[in-house]
TrEMBL record:
Gene3D superfamilies: HAD superfamily/HAD-like (3.40.50.1000), Putative mannosyl-3-phosphoglycerate phosphatase, domain 2 (3.30.980.20)
Keywords in alphabetical order: Hydrolase, Magnesium, Metal-binding
Name used for this protein in its record: HAD-IIB family hydrolase
Organism classification: Bacteria, Pseudomonadati, Pseudomonadota, Gammaproteobacteria, Cellvibrionales
Any one GO molecular function term: hydrolase activity
Keyword Acetylation set for record: no
Record has Metal-binding as a keyword: yes
SUPFAM superfamilies: HAD-like
Organism name: Candidatus Litorirhabdus singularis
Pfam families on file: Hydrolase_3
């Protein structure tokens, strides 16, 4: 990753969630955010993708964005780098393999008769129907290494018990925009910290983080500037820790563009060509 020093003497990075944040929740387009994305590239400010998506999905998006920065997949479970040939390579993992997660979920469902459906229960056609992804994109979404997205079909009361049992099993469940995702005890913020340590900029990075869902809270709280993208699909996020919290007026990539346009005009994201 190319490091550019800002006028404040920091290394600016922008770290973003995808669905409902950089990507439109229905169309999965980032077109509304293109002006800010292009300006980040012009200035050499790294864009780090940090999502619940799989490595396969994220690599395809990286190619569409024209970036080769490291990225974080499956809610902080895997940190990946991009090789010289443009492929992804697992750099560090922070959670158990998906087979372990599926084993615990099967045991809980059999014992308590919980009603839920995970990606492992669905065909690519069914995943496509409930996500709006194309069949090919649904295959990429199903290629999970660490986590299992669930559609909860039971009561709210039983969800509370289920969440406690997940914790007791040493796992972690967090609500995203569409799915309750179960994985090992990892999160987007801890994975970002590991990445900054690997890059040698943990103490000098100036991090702008953007997200819209409860699974983004740890990421937002690890940033210098936390940007909460408006979402009608979840309650307003309560974020504590960053020196500055900004809330967009618009949703998805329109909100991303709205806030980033303002931040790009500020000194912290002005860069010198070193």
């Amino acid at each position: 990753m190319t490091k550019k020093r800002s006028l404040l003497g920091h290394y600016p990075l922008v770290v973003t969630d995808l669905d409902g944040t950089l990507l439109d929740r229905e169309s999965y387009s980032f077109a509304a955010a293109l002006p800010a994305l292009e300006e980040l590239q012009r200035r050499g400010i790294p864009l780090i993708l940090n999502s619940s998506k799989t490595a396969t999905e994220m690599l395809e998006l990286q190619r569409a964005l024209g970036i080769q920065t490291p990225f974080i997949a499956e809610n902080g479970a895997g940190l990946y780098r991009v090789t010289a040939t443009g492929d992804s390579q697992l750099w560090h993992s922070f959670a158990a393999q998906r087979e372990v997660v599926l084993g615990h979920l099967c045991e809980l469902r059999d014992e308590h008769q919980y009603r839920f459906r995970g990606f492992a229960d669905m065909s690519p056609v069914e995943i496509s129907a409930c996500t709006g992804l194309t069949p090919a994109q649904a295959v990429a979404a199903a290629a999970r290494a660490f986590s299992e997205p669930l559609q909860w079909q039971d009561t709210a009361e039983r969800l509370h018990l289920f969440m406690q049992q997940i914790t007791d099993a040493g796992l972690y469940a967090v609500q995203g925009g569409r799915f309750l995702t179960v994985t090992g005890p990892c999160n987007k913020g801890a994975a970002l910290k590991a990445l900054l340590q690997e890059l040698g900029v943990l103490d000098s990075a100036y991090v702008v983080a953007l997200g819209d869902s409860p699974n983004d809270i740890e990421l937002l709280q690890s940033a210098d500037v936390a940007v909460v993208i408006r979402s009608v699909h979840s309650e307003p996020l309560q974020v504590e820790g960053p020196a500055r919290v900004i809330r967009s007026q618009a949703e998805g990539p329109s909100g991303w563009q709205e806030v980033m346009q303002t931040l790009l005009a500020e000194p912290a994201l002005q860069t010198e060509r070193l």
